[in-house]
Amino acid sequence: MWRNMKRKKRNIKRRSAASRKKTAMQSFSKRDAWDVIVVVMLLTIIVYFSAYVRNNHFAIAAWPVVENVEVRGDIDAVDRVALKDIIRSHSAGGFLRIKMAKLEKELETLTWVNKASVQRYWPDSLNVKILQHSPIARWGDTGLMNAYGDLFFPNDIEAYQTLPMLYGEAIRAKELARNFQNSMQQLKPFGLQLRGLFEDGRQSKHLVLADGLVISIGDGNVSEKIKRFITAYEQYLAENLNEVKKVDLRYTNGLAVEWKSPQFAQNLAQHFEMEPNL
Known about the structure:
By secondary structure, this protein is an alpha/beta fold. The chain has helices at 2-55, 80-91, 100-107, 173-187, 222-237, 262-272, and strands spanning 68-72, 113-121, 125-132, 135-139, 143-146, 151-152, 165-167, 194-199, 205-209, 214-218, 244-248, 256-259.
């Protein structure tokens, strides 16, 4: 009898464990089935929506349309027709589809645009801010340069012929802009106006003053060479500056002066007991 009771107890445990396992499997199978159904439904919706958008071009109208565009900044010289065309082409796909960085980059390809920034304002407005180039010098005969050394090439620069002229390799434009502005500040207190800076293929620099006097700097430290020129200017060049054609500073120390008139150079040399061109 005792054995029968133990046997029955073991059978009950086996049936209970089997029942729990069966219930768990049924529950797991139901969850799997629902997951599969949900995934299939989502995929079906995505496929149908994609097909709808492809086959119905007017569906793009569902995106908010750009209704208001405000352009801020000084754009007197900017091609306004080209500006509007670029904004219109980028906003044709709707308010939310505008690629802002790409729009800004294309706006900056316009000749007189130095920097462009665009912001969206919900639900249908764009704010476009334009920073226009402000030229400080001509670059050769065809281009202009701003204060940062950026070059741009308008169709016509006739109105800017009174600006100083710089020229050299385009890749060196920013460095030449710094040299020019620093030299201009050094010479200004002495009433000397800088009108040009030119750099040859060996990076040898030449400054031109308003009266046509050429200062050959060479490829050394421009600021130090200008200081050397100022010392000579104060000591003996100032009173005879109208007779000076060129000052050559391409030396480790000292300088050479080329005079406009050979006779003046001879007289000056006799007066100071020195060589005519020194």
